[in-house]
Amino acid sequence: MSQLDFSTTLGNAWFPTPIFTASGCASSGKELAQFFDLRDMGAIVTKSIMTKPRAGRATPRMAETPSGMLNSIGLQGPGIDAFLANDLTWLVEQKARIIVSIAGETAEEFASLARRLRGVAGISALEVNISCPNVENRGMVFACHLESAQTVIEGVRRTIGGDLPIIAKLSPDVTDIVSIARGVIDAGADGLALINTVLGMVINPNTMRPHLGGRTGGLSGPAIRPIAVRAIYQVHEALPKVPILGMGGVSSGADAFELILAGASGVSVGTASFGNPTAIMKIQNELRQILTDKGFSSLREAVGFAHRPESSVR
Amino acid sequence: MSQLDFSTTLGNAWFPTPIFTASGCASSGKELAQFFDLRDMGAIVTKSIMTKPRAGRATPRMAETPSGMLNSIGLQGPGIDAFLANDLTWLVEQKARIIVSIAGETAEEFASLARRLRGVAGISALEVNISCPNVENRGMVFACHLESAQTVIEGVRRTIGGDLPIIAKLSPDVTDIVSIARGVIDAGADGLALINTVLGMVINPNTMRPHLGGRTGGLSGPAIRPIAVRAIYQVHEALPKVPILGMGGVSSGADAFELILAGASGVSVGTASFGNPTAIMKIQNELRQILTDKGFSSLREAVGFAHRPESSVR
Amino acid sequence: MAGINRSAAQLLATIVGNKKVGQYHQILISVGDLVSQCKPGNFVAISVGGPSSKMVLRRAFAISRTTTSPQFGGAIELIVAPHGSGSTWLCGLAEGEQIDITLPLGTAFGIPTTNVNALLVGGGYGSAPLFGLAEVLKERGCRVDMLLGASTGAKIYAPLEGKRSVNSLRIFTEDGSMGETGRITSPIAQLVSELQIDVVYSCGPMAMLKAISDILGSTDVVHQCAVEEAMACGIGICMTCVLPVKDETGKINNLRSCIDGPVMDGAAIEWDLVGKTLVL
Amino acid sequence: MAGINRSAAQLLATIVGNKKVGQYHQILISVGDLVSQCKPGNFVAISVGGPSSKMVLRRAFAISRTTTSPQFGGAIELIVAPHGSGSTWLCGLAEGEQIDITLPLGTAFGIPTTNVNALLVGGGYGSAPLFGLAEVLKERGCRVDMLLGASTGAKIYAPLEGKRSVNSLRIFTEDGSMGETGRITSPIAQLVSELQIDVVYSCGPMAMLKAISDILGSTDVVHQCAVEEAMACGIGICMTCVLPVKDETGKINNLRSCIDGPVMDGAAIEWDLVGKTLVL
Ligand SMILES: Cc1cc2nc3c(=O)[nH]c(=O)nc-3n(C[C@H](O)[C@H](O)[C@H](O)COP(=O)(O)OP(=O)(O)OC[C@H]3O[C@@H](n4cnc5c(N)ncnc54)[C@H](O)[C@@H]3O)c2cc1C
Ligand SMILES: Cc1cc2nc3c(=O)[nH]c(=O)nc-3n(C[C@H](O)[C@H](O)[C@H](O)COP(=O)(O)OP(=O)(O)OC[C@H]3O[C@@H](n4cnc5c(N)ncnc54)[C@H](O)[C@@H]3O)c2cc1C
Ligand SMILES: Cc1cc2nc3c(=O)[nH]c(=O)nc-3n(C[C@H](O)[C@H](O)[C@H](O)COP(=O)(O)O)c2cc1C
Ligand SMILES: Cc1cc2nc3c(=O)[nH]c(=O)nc-3n(C[C@H](O)[C@H](O)[C@H](O)COP(=O)(O)O)c2cc1C
Ligand code: FES
Ligand code: FES
Fold it and tell me: How far is the CA of B56 from the centre of ligand 6 (A)?
């Protein structure tokens, strides 16, 4: 174990380990901090923050599904001011590495959020959530349309300047994820986060109506892992140099390894933390062991390994 | 129980029950016939048949995933001549109700398959599989593009004439399934089959390469049920008069009921039959009981019930 | 009451008892020294279904009682209704089997510092945490009266030893199969004034809690209710379990019932907004 | 050999024995009169993981042996290697538990009508069906010699009673921890000529079966091998389990190993095309 270089990079941001929280699945960090030291993982990805405080969608906000769950939180959050004053300050004090996720209703809102974050100390990268399916107006899923996705990323890039890596978070609910990926990279993103939840619905057998307050919700958990692996594989194949933060149904080190082989440089863990508050530590330890057992000397070597010809055994 | 009208229609085709096999998940019927009488279910939907015999994709062709599986069969089959001579003849002798699924590499192939089936006795409907993700050239997924989907359906409609209902089978792997649905209905389809499998991938931890011979495969089983329910709900909301044959992860009567509430007039069962050869009978019995317990006097009343305002309790 | 329960821990714990009581299972779990951190009102979150489970989320259960015995050390008791697949799995566990459990979670019932008159109202398995609470209140010198209700007698959970710690206990069932016939909420208004109740502690279905809040609305009786919203995580990281709660300034926020609850001030919950979209 | 096994049925069956033998579990399942339909080579498909399982597919296991006793009635025996989550779950079942099982499935080893010389070759748990086969062959008056091989001794399955029904038994392990050191395939060519073998029956990893086919390729010895392809359904409806097989006319087709196998003619399988795309 001693020799493994477990560190990773996303753009110019460096992280000692490749395991991160997934946006919206760790609140702002305090709640997990009682189960493990936040500094022990790669980084915390904060819940997506918007300009104003938001109450989110009506309850019920969740439904368990086979090997997964639907959620329709609707980006409940305190708004950027309170976030900077409270949550971010606290995280910086903890010396956690931080990726801030932002979400907006318009391209302008994204840019103005980026402006608020420009120069704020302690942030490693920006995740731009253009793919949340849990908003009142499904038309707002920028990542479903090439032009709107590009407009958002261009605006953020222009505002934020050249230093902070921009990671664009994409939706799998598109006909051709590679073209969206290419588009946002052209528009100035440094990396990609793949995948956000898959749009789904559960109908309550008692009321015989959609169970969630928001009717549709986002499907996450192990059920969607094959979709995440496919998306990461396709995008890494098309854009091998673009760093990918992978996510979707990871609940073991073997799962994280699968996403890494497909092309992810880092792996976010979402739903698994709901089922197990120490999932992130477990996954991280298991992954370290697997990489060692397989004879990799660095995480980097394993990134995208599934794309190499079979003859290139290690 | 005595009073329930369990029958359903898809276009002008009538079926005594709403439970069907899913294409590709019952071979040509013989194999299930030793477990139950094929006449006891709504209809058998045959595996998608092409013009020529096809060997399909390389093995491994399957990978189990959490609450689901990936397959990459690649439409292995005997070709239309042998199908008509052997499989169809046998099914007709059994007095099973039959929906023939066809697949082609070009719009012309679809049309010529339809021509071969025109006037063949014993067929209740035609399912047009324009959404198979398991073909060498992913560009061939007609259902991912409005124009190509329409071209296929127009060709089939023109060839087959006005009598046999045409059910277009769509893929969930699109940005906007409603627009594709509307497009194929405009092009002459009488109904829709929702959903085909979701494109996915599994990487083998031992070889560290994609597990399936075909690299990507189609995700099916309970894992995708929330996606199926959402797709059916969205399409039924937009096109309430269009009959939908629903499928995706149904393994109990309650699951079938969920798809029906969302808007399906019939429900196909695929993967569940792999795990349980008598799944179709079990699902059918459970569904009958649920409809009765809920006080429905006919299946029809329940179709799309989830769309009615909450005040319309029964 | 709000905030993260700092004593929460995750552990593999052993089932040391599982007994059917009416329609419920009384499940005893050995958790060691953590019992000393468990207060009436707190809950636990349990991983269900075993290693190849399709259920990815934990299930929440109120801690009914804590005990310490030479045999098992510290143990907690749950009263579980076999409802769906997760709770049914839990009810099927045998002594000696292990579960992955997180505890104690959430807020506890506030205990008055003086000897007040308390009315405890429990619906169904909602009575579970009330007996432990009754003991604590009695120790403080409070007068404790209790009302239990359910649709039918088999859903009344009222252990003998628990009955000893209350001044009076009345039981209501809707079908009249046990105790008085009718709804548990019907006698509350009268009891509150007759017994000069200072605080009502309640636990049970949301509709019952709302009805009690409505009854107490015109009084200055304190209402501490333990709510039951669907929870995906139980530890405050998912935001699924929110309820609209008014703060001191009158502003309504969606609070997480897993960390700002389950015990909440019934008067602060905006019951009419539950399940509605809140506009800030 | 081809076609649907018409005697297949689905039933809830009871585990009546589960014993660890080396690295395997010897599992006895009561299946009633169906035993009379089970022939050496047939397999079963078992639903795994219980009611809330995330595993949607059955697991296939060769029938090792059938017995009939006054106590259990007809029963079948499986030799199971705890490999992944499904087989490990199965190995963890206690006597008295029930499983959903489909049997008998697939083709059986062809039994010669005259007394021929047979060599039985089993790799790992592949030996399981060979002892039952040996008995049948002995009854027909055949000479039966057996080779068993595995990576290590704990993976050799060779029950005492089974050894009685063979004329000779040689064991090979790669690490030399049991029997002779080396690969099971090394002595085959010599044995075939020395013992004037007419038919080789084999069961084990695909690589072993292929190696045997290669060895026998230049001879006119019949090779009946029980293949092991990943199977999603086991009953012929999914097309996942195919192998490229030459028919009488020399045409190669992808045949389903669950209904046209698992016992297939080793000489007809196009081993070099396994895992390749076949062009018709
Ligand atoms: C704070 C709290 C305390 C509770 N205390 C008890 C108790 O002491 N005894 C007891 O029997 N039950 C209690 N419950 C309810 C218990 O959590 C549910 O009955 C249980 O989760 C049902 O799981 P299932 O798998 O059996 O049902 P399913 O219906 O299959 O569950 C599916 C999903 O819905 C959620 N869910 C279903 N029913 C409820 C419910 N009533 N409340 C919240 N979520 C639900 C589940 O957690 C799960 O995520 C409590 C719930 C909460 C939130
Ligand atoms: C005809 C036949 C007979 C068999 N006989 C025996 C036997 O007598 N004893 C025994 O121990 N095993 C036998 N096997 C292998 C056994 O089916 C697998 O070990 C078992 O399915 C593994 O399941 P799992 O959940 O433990 O592993 P996982 O790796 O979790 O299984 C995942 C999926 O892969 C499939 N799979 C995994 N390994 C194999 C394998 N080796 N062969 C085929 N499919 C596999 C599983 O069926 C499942 O669908 C047989 C297989 C076949 C096809
Ligand atoms: C309850 C919940 C809330 C989420 N909120 C956000 C969010 O605010 N921003 C975002 O980009 N993704 C959000 N996601 C998506 C996750 O970050 C992640 O992309 C997805 O859940 C897949 O990963 P998983 O299967 O590990 O959960 C949320 C997911 C869940 C389950
Ligand atoms: C092994 C397998 C083969 C399939 N073959 C076909 C096919 O030939 N034509 C088709 O339209 N759909 C095919 N499908 C898709 C199913 O018909 C169905 O749409 C999908 O599996 C979802 O249903 P399920 O979850 O009940 O399996 C296949 C699915 C599986 C699992
Ligand atoms: S249950 Fe997750 S925040 Fe309350
Ligand atoms: S395993 Fe399904 S066809 Fe053979």
Answer: 14
